[in-house]
Design brief:
Elements (H helix, E strand, L loop, with lengths): L11 E2 L7 H12 L10 H12 L5 E3 L2 E2 L2 E3 L7 E11 L9 E9 L4 H15 L2 H9 L3 H13 L10 E8 L5 H10 L6 E5 L16 H5 L5 E9 H15 L8 E7 L13
Helix pairs in contact: 1-2, 3-6
Length: about 280
């Protein structure tokens, strides 16, 4: 599901009026109610869903972004709303910054996997400076709607070949771990295996000859991460392109390594990736 599938034009507000977090949640609940899919759900129920989720942990994910969300019994689809605050709203975000960019969502409890993927897509979209610039400069809901349509339609389509490959991706820079996990989730790679790893220098201190260098090798040492996933051969190139959109050109030193290997035997279905 694309973000655009969750929206109607009336649920986009480029000029939020809220001055507090409580007011913001009320305003976002009202925007969500503009969607005909919520016609039989009262606004108080929508607001309650957002507040109940917020009590478990902040949805202020940092970088001026808030993604309040919740689940409502009886819905048949995921519903979204977008708002922009010019002044910023104190939100209790993970980085302490006020929130300016808000995407609110409610979903049926039984659509957890699709809901998770849609939230990941929202997080990635809001991490794109070109999109947040659109939000800042938008004067009408249509400006935002059209930009989302453009960005979601830009992805290269993939064709299934029926051939399975093992994709191995080593992430070297741990600062990209969260957005890479979000990307795996976004395209349906929640079945991927993630391993903590480190290169050989981390084990040199166990070799008697090099034990005197234990301090040198342990200072500032970080674990890398290796992602493993079985995918259709036709999706590999597009999937790696998406990784490079996050970490940069893999041909540059220190970015990461992506390897796809043919599988001689595999019992089971490969992950169905969507872009």
């Amino acid at each position: 599901m694309k973000l655009l599938d969750t929206l109607v034009m009336e649920s986009i507000q480029p000029g939020l009026r809220s001055k507090s977090k409580d007011e913001l949640f009320e305003e976002m609940a009202a925007l969500l109610k503009q969607n005909p899919a919520l016609e039989k759900v009262d606004e108080a129920t929508v607001l309650k869903a957002l507040n109940e989720r917020e009590r478990t942990a902040t949805t202020g994910v940092g970088k001026e972004v808030g993604i309040p969300h919740g689940k409502i019994m009886g819905l048949t689809q995921i519903i979204g709303a977008i708002g922009v605050s010019r002044r910023g709203i104190e939100y209790g975000s993970v980085d302490g910054l006020p929130v300016r960019f808000v995407v609110a969502m409610v979903a049926p409890p039984e659509q957890s996997q699709e809901y998770l993927r849609t939230l990941a897509k929202v997080a990635r979209l809001l991490s794109d400076p070109s999109f947040t610039e659109t939000l800042v400069t938008a004067s009408a809901p249509n400006d935002i709607y059209s930009r989302i349509e453009q960005m979601e339609g830009a992805a290269t389509q993939v064709s299934a070949t029926g051939e399975k490959q093992l994709l191995i991706f080593e992430l070297i820079d741990g600062d990209y771990f969260d957005p890479v996990v979000e990307y795996f989730t976004e395209v349906g790679g929640t079945s991927a295996t993630v391993l903590d790893a480190r290169n050989v220098e981390g084990f040199l201190t166990k070799v008697p000859l090099f034990q005197d260098f234990s301090r040198v090798f342990s200072e500032g040492q970080e674990f890398g991460h290796v992602f493993l996933m079985v995918v259709d051969k036709g999706a590999v190139e597009r999937f790696v392109e998406g990784l490079e959109e996050i970490v940069g050109d893999l041909q540059e030193e220190g970015r990461g390594i992506a390897i796809a290997l043919d599988i001689a035997y595999c019992r089971g279905m490969p992950a169905m990736l969507e872009f």
